[in-house]
Amino acid sequence: MPADYATTSEIQCKSLGMKVEVFDPSGNNVEHTGQAGELVCTRPHPSIPVCFWGDESGEKFRDAYFGMYPGKLDYDDTPLVCAEITWELEGVWRQGDFMVVNPRTKGIMILGRRSVNEFLSNCGLTDTLCATCHISDGVLNPSGVRFGSGEIYSVLEQFTALLDDSLCVGQRRPHDKDERVLLFLKMRAGHKFTGTLVDRIRSAIRTRLSARHVPAFIFEIEDIPVRRRLIFTVFEFYLTPCCSTP
Amino acid sequence: MLQYTVNGKKIEIAVKQIVSGSDLKPSGTVANPESLQLYYKYRDIENLAGTSKAKL
Questions:
Q1: What is the pLDDT of residue A229?
Q2: Distance between CA atoms of A20 and A131, rounded to whole angstroms?
């Protein structure tokens, strides 16, 4: 624990051994500007997982964490050696959350994915920040424009009255020269997927992001796959009688 | 007793692989694995876009 004062909603300092920085989409450090950006770690750190289970080629793992800022890092530090494994990162570790450093206190706020727009629009530095943390979005790279699907989801937040959920992915089949972006929309009950809605979404993405962010195709879909999540609550942990079924 | 929630993260990577031509076996942690079947037809996107209700 750092011997320093604490500010509501802020982490007092970076963890020991973690070279945490804040990057904009092009990979510039915006840590000292007070701007929100990608939470990245630019040096190997002890808690990097060895691999994903079943991901033998390591492709999923690289895609998940090093896909956004790839390329060998040019730093002179000695590589971190841990047992027999020598870590040499294949890029900058991108956690998948937004963060911002309060320029006044230097305190860190982790914004997650979805709450970042609320945060920016409110522009107060507290309150909305602990809301939701999504480490969900993948990297899209159509025609060499690199961005995260979270940017699309952020725009779609203004359509939540109509949309139950959405999924934005890149498509690149073996014969495709380039990646294209597909957006799948699951409508709320009682709402229709219409050409007008598609036009409104395209126009919102064009205005808030850019024409190059607009998905090549927008489809209606009946269901979106989600990950099951195991939960333990403190309540269950302490209060479940020992004789309950495992 | 173990409890699961279904408000987990959406699974982009599986859908990305499906629409890009890989067949895949859904992992045990997908809450609604049958939903993945819906995405196979989007591999043949050129034909689909011409005929279906998709709006381009």
A1: 61
A2: 22
Higher pLDDT, A100 or A119: A100
Q: Please name the member of A135, A136, A138 whose beta carbon is closest to the beta carbon of B16.
A: A138
Domain with CATH 2.30.38.10 in chain A: 20-130
Start-to-end CA span in chain A (Å): 37
Q: Which among A221, A227, A240 has the least Cβ separation from residue B30? A: A227
* Nearest Cα to Cα of residue A35 among A106, A97, A99, A124: A99
* Pairing verdict, β A20-23 and A163-171: unpaired
**A226 interfacial to chain B (CB closer than 8 Å):** yes
Domain covering A20-130, topology: Luciferase; domain 3 (2.30.38)
pTM exceeds cut of 0.80: no
Task: Assign domain A139-220 to a CATH class.
Answer: alpha beta
